[in-house]
Structures are given as C-alpha cells and as structure tokens.
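Researcher: I'm preparing a figure for a lab meeting and need a structural model of a single chain. I don't have an experimental structure, so a prediction will have to do for now. The sequence is pasted below. Please return the structure as tokens so I can convert it later.
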Amino acid sequence: MSLVLQTYTGRFDYEALADGRPVTISLRDMAHSLAGQPRFLAHGDSQISIAEHSINVKNLAKAIAVSRNLSASDVLHAERWGFLHDGHETYFADLPSPLKRLFRQRGFTLYDELRAECDRRISEHFELPLPVPDIVHEADHQMLLVESRQAFERLDPVAWGDGKHVPAAPRWPGTKDPIQMKWLTPKQAELAFLAAAIGLGLRAD
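Model: Understood. Here is the structure written out token by token.
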C-alpha cells in the first residue's frame, strides 16, 4: 500500500518525511485542509476550524508579545509561528490532546517524532527558525480555553478541568474584552488563512 497522501494541490510522502528526504510543503494545502478540519473532532455544539484557530493564535500571540514590549522582529516572529504552529495538522490531522497524552504514556513516540520532523520542514520552507516561541504555546493554550467555552454549550469538568472546576476563559492582554470567535465557514476560513499568510509575508507556493 502507498505511503503517499494525495493533497489539495499534489501529494505528501510520509516515508520520505521519516527518511529525511524532501517533501512538499504547500501553503494552499494548509489553507484548504485546515479550513475543513474542525476543532475538537467536531464534537462542539458550534464548529471552529483549525484555520480559524491558527488566525486566533496568531492574533493573540501578537497581543501578548506587544503587551510585553518585545521588539518588532520578535512580535512578527511570534505572529508567524502562532499562525503556523498547527501547520503539521495539514498532514497529520488534529488528534485530541487526551489521545496524544495516552500515546506518550504508553511509549508510542512515532507520531511526535514525525510531527516534529514536519515542523522542521515547515520551518525550512517558510524560513522561520525553531524552536516555536513560548508565547505561541501560551497563546495556543489560552485559545484552547476560549474556543472550548464557545464551541461547547457545557464543558465537562472531568475532560477540561480538575474534575470539579473548569478554568476561566482568558481575555485580551491588558483589557477586559473577551476573545470572540467569528465562526467562519470552511471557504471563509480558507480565504482568511491565505489573506493572513500574505499579511505576514509568508512564502507562497
């Protein structure tokens, strides 16, 4: 059986990725695929795509970086990685965090290894140095709290909290303003993703 995935614009070779050989990273594939993939395996009462999530993390990473008086270059670097932090899900899908934790507990490392290698290829393609800035991980976690609260009508404290309490939703840095979803359709999310990439000066296909 083939180890090659047909993508929106071409193909992605998993064996080549694993063996260190060249693979094709495509911004158009990212936009199309991530816009069509819902967060939380589509279990929410309302759907947020990974593309919209990527834009949200980009915006929040920028806001956090600006609030901490980082240099313009560091702010842009955080924005770009915030935007691309889930780019590997174009080829690996959005596995639920509990499942990824179980994989690690049971010693199943191949997924993390291949995902990390994919991140390296994305880093090279877009000329973005690794590692991903800590601000991006912070923004990603905060957006998880925000998006889950808005996607689900009721959050299960066992799944999302300590079994009794659900964490509070973050707000924009330095304000009392809540972070709101736009609930983009797949086509809207795809176009918004491509527009955001252009705004960030990222390399097109």
